[in-house]
Design brief:
The protein contains 22 helices and eight strands. The protein is an alpha+beta fold and about 475 residues long. The protein has three domains: about 140 residues, Orthogonal Bundle (Arc Repressor Mutant, subunit A); about 130 residues, no CATH class; about 70 residues, Arc Repressor Mutant, subunit A. It has a four-stranded mixed β-sheet with strand order 3-2-5-6, with helices on one face. A hairpin with a 2-residue loop joins strand 2 and strand 3. The radius of gyration is 35 Å and the shape is extended. The termini are far apart.
Length: about 475
């Protein structure tokens, strides 16, 4: 039989505890500029002890009393101090507000334009297609199907949903859904709601009365030969000359592979830098951009209330809000100091880039900066994420300055991967139309002309990252 006993053991251990304040500091550090603005505004709204500095410079009652109103002041209007004190100010200001409203109302006409009507926005492809379908003869059920199909079209104009799912959802047959999809296919732009590029182009060809042409047959049956630009194989297959094949390919190129391309309503977002770096003689000046970031401070009245308040629950509430505000201020201050230090270190590491541009960008990893600043690599990562810097050579994300290195012929880790990718892009821009360089040829040129030793598969990887097709698909006909 096992004898059970109770005993007490003392154990000492170290644990890292993430306090709420530390979590907030980390969160603030990794926020983008827009996210920081949103966070501050939200805190201003929910925290009563915080006030926006834009509205904190209120005039005193004495200043208001002495303020001119069309050249007449309360003091020079014959009202003494006692009369001013005894006056019903609440009623006075209500009357002033009412009179001001009536003055505006008197000048208002019901025929005045509604300024909201002047606001314009580009019509989306969904709105345009629904409007067209409404102009055709249709039942209520058909419109419901059409609406479901149209709202399942991607940015390029292709139908991306499952026909069976739509049929089940709307309690109709798959044939009904396909029939309505075919009707939408021939709305403007022709080929919209197709399931593939091939189907879209064939629909456009059908509308243009060339669905029985060799060009259409190439799309239906020999798309792979077309993708590989194998002109000889196509000429042999159709028993025609290579010139006739090229004419058919020109016909294919005249149609739009992405039917919704001209109907995209995406708004181009302007990047606002978090940091500006200016050349100042032989050195650089770093300026943190705080333009647009809300400024706030603690409200004096609430601080005074906290000092004289006797109720525990009210004191706790106010103290919590004051602490929250102070930690937000500290977190923002720490964020600014960390960004400044990281940028300062980047300039030291990447002085060649700041002086002379992209070809002089050096290999750099997070660990290099972290060791100089005596901080963790994750802190550097959070600092550089979604932050932008304006330099003499353009605006870049801070992460842009970090990349691994590639050895030169002499074995030194001389080249940043970004520099090598730019070299590959420059090489491909010089290639002849009919004779595109293979990945082996690019590797050879890098070796001979740029002192960069790079394997063919690495060239292929960088080429793909640049969204450049392989040589077999870069032939210009």
């Amino acid at each position: 039989m096992i004898k059970q006993t109770l005993s007490t053991n003392l154990k000492i251990s170290q644990n890292l505890v993430m306090t709420p304040q530390l979590q907030q500091s980390i969160k603030i550090l990794q926020l983008s500029r827009l996210e920081l603005i949103k966070t501050i505004r939200e805190e201003i709204e929910i925290n009563p002890v915080i006030e926006d500095e834009r509205y904190s410079n209120e005039e005193s009652v004495d200043d208001i009393m002495d303020m001119d109103n069309e050249g007449v002041t309360l003091n020079n209007a014959g009202m003494d101090k006692k009369a001013i004190d005894e006056m019903d100010w609440s009623n006075y200001f209500e009357n002033i507000a009412y009179a001001s409203y009536n003055k505006v109302a008197a000048n208002y006409s019901e025929e005045s334009p509604d300024f909201e009507k002047f606001i314009s926005k580009k019509q989306s492809i969904e709105e345009y297609l629904l409007w067209q379908f409404q102009m055709t003869e249709h039942s209520e059920k058909e419109f419901a199907i059409a609406e479901n199909i149209i709202y399942n079209i991607d940015n390029d104009g292709f139908f991306v949903a499952d026909v069976q799912n739509i049929a089940q959802e709307l309690l109709c047959s798959v044939e009904d859904v396909e029939r309505i999809r075919k009707r939408i296919n021939f709305l403007d732009p022709i080929g919209i709601a197709a399931k593939s590029v091939e189907e879209s182009i064939l629909l456009q060809m059908e509308f243009a009365n060339c669905k029985d042409s060799i060009a259409a047959d190439i799309i239906r049956n020999n798309i792979k030969l077309l993708e590989n630009k194998n002109i000889k194989a196509l000429a042999k297959y159709y028993n025609i000359s290579e010139g006739e094949v090229l004419d058919s390919i020109k016909v294919i190129h005249s149609f739009e592979p992405k039917p919704a391309r001209n109907y995209k309503t995406d708004i181009v977002q302007t990047i606002v830098p978090d940091v500006y770096v200016y050349r100042s003689g032989d050195d650089y000046t770093i300026v943190l951009n705080d333009d647009g970031i809300p400024k706030f401070r603690l409200n004096d009245e609430y601080i005074a209330m906290l000092q004289r308040e006797r109720k525990d629950d009210v004191r706790k509430f106010l103290q919590d809000k004051v602490n929250s505000a102070k930690w937000l201020l500290r977190s923002i201050d720490m964020r600014e100091k960390t960004i400044y230090k990281v940028v300062e270190t980047l300039i030291k590491f990447q002085r060649g880039f700041f002086d002379n541009g992209l070809p002089f960008l050096r290999p750099l990893v997070l660990k290099d900066v972290a060791e100089i600043l005596d901080i963790h690599e994750s802190t550097v990562s959070r600092t550089t994420n979604n932050k932008y810097i304006s330099t003499p050579h353009g605006i870049f994300e801070l992460k842009y300055f970090f990349s691994t290195g590639i050895n030169s012929i002499n074995g030194n880790n001389d080249f940043s991967t970004k520099v090598v990718m730019e070299k590959i892009k420059a090489i491909l821009q010089k290639e002849q139309n009919g004779k595109p360089y293979s990945d082996d040829k690019i590797s050879e040129i890098l070796d001979k002309e740029h002192n960069v030793k790079l394997a063919r598969r690495t060239v292929a990887k960088y080429r793909m990252q640049l969204n450049i097709l392989p040589s077999s698909k870069r032939k210009k006909l």
